[in-house]
Task: structure prediction
Amino acid sequence: MLTDTNDEEVALFDAEEDAGTKSKSKIKHPVASFFHLFFRVVALIVYLLCGFYSASSMACMVTIILLLSCDFWTVKNITGRLMVGLRWWNQVDDDGRSHWVFESRKGTGKIQTSDSESRIFWLGLIVFPVLWAIFSFTALIYFNIKWLPVVIMGVVLQGANLYGYIRCKVGGKTSLKSMATDYLGRQFLKQTLSKEEGS
Result:
């Protein structure tokens, strides 16, 4: 059972929101913005430089997994709520069934999200899982099996946060497949209408 309490839209990359006041572009939570990127950037740097500067691959793997875990917890529990007003979690009821809950900030009286923070949040959330996916394909192609569990952990932990926040953004009951189909349909319609107007 999905619980959706998505009453207010929080714009992905702020595409749907108007700029409003100039204070919206200021970073309201600099510490949260810093740690939103800190753990994932450091994990990536450690992964890239580990082969050059460390003789112990086990210490590097443990360090990377700890950094990825800290990133997962920080993004899921702190930065998503502060930077874009979204949060998600899983709870188990008395019967042992798992329920996913997706929420977004409600009401117009609440603190509005900053454009800059929203961009930092979504870019960091999207770019890094893609990078870890590229690293996993690279590890497979070059048969670098010892690093494969680490890059899979990167894909899983950061991909889970990405999936959770996209579900918060579009609503817990909305199917991502139907959302993608609707988007592609609108783009096709726009393209067709623009071609007809140009003729």
